[in-house]
């Protein structure tokens, strides 16, 4: 009996030690995970802000005081800028350590190290685009004394100081689940992240859509469906018209397929993730960012006002982290930093506030190359002479460090190459040449006027090009589409012949020709990813893809309000009105009346009912609204029926013209595009719109029940989803109802997980006042009350007043939630 | 009772110092030293008390319930199951180590001094 008991105990002990020490499948090793002193349960103790802690940081020259306010925002008081950015690295690591790690893996094409082979396509995209090589180039190119390098090193010191002293209890949950420890942070990790922003915001190349359409309907039609210039223009740089201009000229009819475009359409191979996104999301302009500023003459208080809300993929933790850095006499900047970047990207100082939207210019060109060896190219021909090709071996590692794939990526002097349908294409992209962007943020933070800020950014910032809006305490406002715009021999709307240097970029557009405006006569400036400059006013091809609807809406709101208040600025950010709906609804209503009067066509009773419902709709996308769902369904049906020429044999569509191009088509009621090729009769605009309305009504009734009832609430079909970085549902915030829709200033896109990632309003009076929020919270610890505490106010469209103390002592105890003293250490 | 408390304190202290191995070491030693019937079960109970006390310390910040719900959600198990697994894991390790310790103790004690 004793022997049996002993044998049983040995077996239990052996099994316990085994599962305690080794992960089994996706489950972490249970010993360290469950143990209550340092394991996952200890995270409950780590959820609070630090209270009076001291910590040493290598490289720190003098002590730095960090005070956390009641919104968990760290206010960093240092005596040098490098110390301030060291401290920023420390506090960001304390709150967002796993995010730093995950973002670096994503940006450097190493997600396979936690995701295995499943993540290989994403990693390949990063590396085959040359983004990792470019980051290494920044590190090699910038000297030790450059601001970018010095601050990146200081930031790395801070991150690594936290990692070195991190109590076991503070090891983030995600590291525990993955069975990993945080690696040392390297300055190059900041450059990876910088390039990742370029990938997110500057991979707009209309040629992909255009050649895809040309392969179906010919080049002339494709050029009109995916135009260089938006059919609706109310540019960022005011053109003096005071109203939008609509292109009402007829679209060329669909033509014969362009066989040459068949090959070139394969440029999609470069960006598989974008191809997937387009297939999922027909109306790409749902992606959005806004900013606007009003001069004192149009504000109720007589002070300049500025508002900004950049739209990005929403995640928990958020892409943004709020912080305040003070170096007396040198720096006093408050705003949103991206964990991993040694800079406040969007924010304000005591004199100037700034915020960005994406410019969306086409800064990515493809070249068809002639190579010496199709399988293993070593040279490519340019102007009759061979030029070398540089191979670079990319190794992808799995979760246990094993090699799971090896690629060779070839580089011409233009950039990386890919073999696509039997041809080698190379890529030229401004993002691959950038590198000093962080220096722009660091220098811009010291600006004393809006013009100084714009000039500081213009000196160093190249990619991704941004519409940088600034306002200052003297009442000046300014906007400039800052970035690098290559001057081409011909526009980059189609892939170019790489054997001729005549097709290479010649130089960059000089600063004076960038879209820009300072203190405009209209008294305000607004950008919402629309075309930055009126194409009639310039002779330069910016290319790109632009969305006019939000610009129309914000311009209309600002024009109508000559005494704008801070609350107006906040309200505009979540305004549920839509210029898109205002334009289209009358067309649907008129079509319903006309088709009904013809006595033919779709079910007249249903058409009348659908028309009545649509007519009652106030064209607002509030969560409780019961009209938006019918309109959006009708718009989708109309686009599907109209653009049937772009569908492949199996009915799938690779590209869809924008709703602005659709608006242009509205003016031509008998265009050949209206005809539904699957029916024997020839349809016109009204027939298609009426039948779309009927189809939408029937489908919506079937799906959501009695028309107009609560089942038709916009919130039943429109949600926001904020997934955790590892897409773990328990750590995410999913299925939340929210106002906003297509064409509104606050749309939610891409499966509900792309939207306003940060909202800020700043009043630049004698003292600066600001209000902010973002969808998440300061802490990356899911157990922390600060993990997603800001989401309710973000959903409601409210903002919180921020504290901007000049000294630590200015923040009273009632407004403090923690403190930390960083001391010089080894 | 005293033995249970002393063992639990030793286990909690060693867990704090060494991590989860602490409970195995403490149980081995306790199993060797405790010369009473059912000692391994007492050691297992001590482990539950020790880790339970440490969990109680974790809960002082007021975020324990939130954390438990999150982890249970991630692991896709009910919250009580997660707590039971935590305590049971420690108890099983302690019981089995105590039985082994008990056997070691017997052998040591039964070995003639001259050998």
Provide the descriptors you would attach to this structure in a database record.
heterodimer; A: 826 residues; alpha+beta; Penicillin amidase (Acylase) alpha subunit, N-terminal domain; eleven-stranded mixed β-sheet; seven-stranded antiparallel β-sheet; 23 helices; 32 strands; 20% strand; B: 115 residues; mainly alpha; 5 helices; 0% strand; elongated
* Total count of helical runs of at least 4 residues of chain A: 23
| Strand content bin of chain A | 15-25%
Write the CATH fold name of one domain in chain A: Penicillin amidase (Acylase) alpha subunit, N-terminal domain
Q: Report the oligomer.
A: heterodimer
Strand content of chain B: under 5%
Structural account:
- The complex is a heterodimer of chains A (826) and B (115).
- Chain A has 826 residues and is α+β, with helices and mostly antiparallel strands.
- Chain A is built from 23 helices and 32 strands.
- The N and C termini of chain A lie far apart (60 Å).
- Chain B has 115 residues and is mainly alpha-helical.
- Helix content of chain B is 82%, strand content 0%.
- Chain B has helices spanning 2-18, 21-33, 39-58, 64-75, 79-110.
- Chain B is elongated.
- The model of chain B has no long low-confidence stretch (mean pLDDT 92).
- The chains are: A alpha+beta (826), B mainly alpha (115).
- The A-B interface holds A 2, 5-6, 8-13, 16-17, 20, 27, 30-32, 34-45, 47-48, 173, 177, 728-731, 782-785 and B 12, 15-16, 19-21, 24, 40, 51, 54-55, 57-61, 63-64, 66-67, 70-75, 85-86, 89-90, 92-93, 95-100, 103.
